Amino acid sequence: MTDIITLQQRIADLLGPQGCLLQPEQRQLYEKGARYGDGKSLCIARPANVDEAAELMRLCARDKIRIVPQGANTGLVGAASPDRSGLDVLLSMERIKGVIDIDPVDRVVQAYAGTRLSELNQALEKHDLYFPIDLGADPSLGGMLAANTGGARLIRYGDVRHNTLGLEALLIDPPGERLDLTNRLRKNNTGPDWKQCFIGTGGAYGVITQVVLQVHPRPQQSATALVAPASMEAAALLLRDVERNFADFLSAFEGISQNALQSVLQHVPGIAAPFEPLPPYAFLIELSSARPRSADFDLEKLFGAWLESCFGDLILDAVIDKPEVLWRIRHAISDSVRQEGKVVAFDISVPRSSLGQFRQEAAALLEQSHAGIKLFDFGHWGDGGLHFNLAIPEQLIADFPPLRINALRQEIYDLAVLKYKGSFSAEHGVGPFNQQFYERYTTPAQLALATRMQNVFDPERLLGVTSYGAKQ
Amino acid sequence: MTDIITLQQRIADLLGPQGCLLQPEQRQLYEKGARYGDGKSLCIARPANVDEAAELMRLCARDKIRIVPQGANTGLVGAASPDRSGLDVLLSMERIKGVIDIDPVDRVVQAYAGTRLSELNQALEKHDLYFPIDLGADPSLGGMLAANTGGARLIRYGDVRHNTLGLEALLIDPPGERLDLTNRLRKNNTGPDWKQCFIGTGGAYGVITQVVLQVHPRPQQSATALVAPASMEAAALLLRDVERNFADFLSAFEGISQNALQSVLQHVPGIAAPFEPLPPYAFLIELSSARPRSADFDLEKLFGAWLESCFGDLILDAVIDKPEVLWRIRHAISDSVRQEGKVVAFDISVPRSSLGQFRQEAAALLEQSHAGIKLFDFGHWGDGGLHFNLAIPEQLIADFPPLRINALRQEIYDLAVLKYKGSFSAEHGVGPFNQQFYERYTTPAQLALATRMQNVFDPERLLGVTSYGAKQ
């Protein structure tokens, strides 16, 4: 085995001083996760192009050095962080960036994986197009594919998987082999759809170097309301009925619990209470259209009339306001809740028809076994997504050591996954942080398949820190 | 090795007389393809439920007998037909049928694989929902997933892959193992998305037994026009502009060539010429909405005004008419062309911005090397799909023996795939009929992956007649 200093030297020789970061203060930006976790790498490798990345993979494979691909380091499950051994090469894609081509007739864009979402949308703006995956962070496109990011507008546009027409990936076996799947076809049924293997698998099967995405006309008008349903049963019917009436336009159906709303009002200055008193739950409903507002097509008018017709049966109260006003409330929740205590964040999904029932049952479970902890849930209700976030008040933190939090997490997941056939990670992926839960909820048949699949793509286990296969 | 009679007996014992067809006149319905090809099976096995199907797979695997899964036998590439050896067991899923559950709030339906599309839509009707994959045939749902069917409304709803939330499949290794992926989640990022392996792979990796589909509100109003573009260059801009103005509503953008339109007018009684003279190309544009027509939201009015504004620059002429009138023309093409001579059908796609150029170049190629053959192309222009169908007039059929037709096919495919990065099979799949082209256009890197993948799912090559791996 080659020693670490020699390997660092070889990588520096291959990629140049800009391409190989060795100083601790340079590395920290990459080794520490966006919100959680950290590790220690052998070096930060920043190839300038795809050929250099392939060469780096060959170099690492020769010495059986593990590679951890990283986009913009905005992930939340540790999938792009090295472990603490100092033996992983962190492969940053940030220099392999740039939009290659935009075709406005195709509504297709091709770009390198290191391009940021914001950079893509900036380039698309002059064509009145955008990539409608709406997120809090500004990830790289390669990272978005690897994580299959969802976000608030999935109900309208689907997730990243739905909008990916093609990609290019580098395989680790044979090392650095380029798999060119960069076609732009919407219809192509010529065998296994290989790109699916690289989407949502956190870099375990290959390093995504290029993406080909379907993009969409930018909305030209929208109508946004915050709605208090008549009851939680009415909430399900409200979703069903808004889809029946506005299926063509519905671009968000977000849930906000009373506690979450209360927390925003308390901690964010300048936001007025939309309801008095606050209802147990509220929904931010957004309609939008690529067609500009006109006298004969006005979403706000259509929406307003419909909301009016729902008063009583389905709706207790509703506020129609500018999107920026209502979304500001929604986007402030995550940070506000941080001021309520130590946050335990969740990223759950269940069938959306069960959301109300799941939420009630999970809240009762908390009440019973973990009194004092406070629930501030919110989420992408229309997609079945629920950030079932909790805050442990300052004075109770000592009562909730990591082991108890882990047990609590598992109780909630057991309810979501085993009883409601839900997901313990709706949007964020597996990664080392969710590894134990992946192993708990994945069936033996799937684990067996995953083990065989790892032998297809990465028999030496040289790629990424997530392991989908059964323990050897 | 067990002899055939014994095997037939064992299968009859397992599945009963209804479940094992042996008489030639009974078998023919399954052994002969919907439109092309035929084979000879060891028997037609028709298990009554999933357990019986699993048991059958175990029985066949023990004796290394190949199984060919079949849905409603409506496929066009021979993927569900046995070869001619008389040694394949044809596994018909037609008895494993029925809708299991419809959840109108989730907009989700779960059904057995043998359920027909028409049966599904009938069950959905009372909820004002439908599965919007629009096809000429009435396939089984399992077959639709295995073929990843597209159809005329892909531009709005995506293909079957986009609308599949879950499935259940039986693996052949271990034989008959049930892989339960029947979740109903729109957001679930917990590892490799295994269902993708079974979608569009023609039964090569497993037998689909259940499907979980996202369904959609049934349209309540529509507006349909047949449009003659000012030129073929204008056609691309027309597509771009109709999407900018009606992205929320566009549910079909179908192309019809002059010859195809002429053929319909000549052979189908009661259809009046929509234009005089016929333009070189016409487009059937359909808008639809789940929202009923009202004074303040009338798609026909909006569409009419917009079409008017396009006259001159983009549009030469346009006819707004009832959907059934205009779709009747579109749906009559395939059969009309059959009356023009011997049909050579194509199922090509290219990036939609290149459709006009590809078509022109392919027509010139025909003209030059295959004079006398006549082009009647039409297709799903909005998705980049083109049925580049040809008819060989009666008096020239002798000049076009099978080898020449195959060479012609390859010339057209070479142009589509190699020059335009298109597909030789946009909607219909690979199957034995396209095997030679699959091998021609698939890269060595993909073939190598496919070979390894086959070792994951079917190391003994016991499932299906399509082979995605490299020749051994």
UniProtKB/TrEMBL annotation, chains A, B:
One of its GO terms (molecular function) is catalytic activity. It comes from the Bacteria. Keywords: FAD, Flavoprotein. InterPro entries: FAD-bd_oxidored_4_C, FAD-bd_PCMH, FAD-bd_PCMH-like_sf, FAD-bd_PCMH_sub1, FAD-bd_PCMH_sub2, FAD-linked_Oxase-like_C, FAD-oxidored/transferase_4, Oxid_FAD_bind_N. Residues 37-218 form the FAD-binding PCMH-type domain. PROSITE patterns: FAD_PCMH. One of its GO terms (biological process) is respiratory electron transport chain. This is FAD linked oxidase, C-terminal domain protein. It comes from Collimonas arenae. The lineage of its organism: Bacteria, Pseudomonadati, Pseudomonadota, Betaproteobacteria, Burkholderiales.
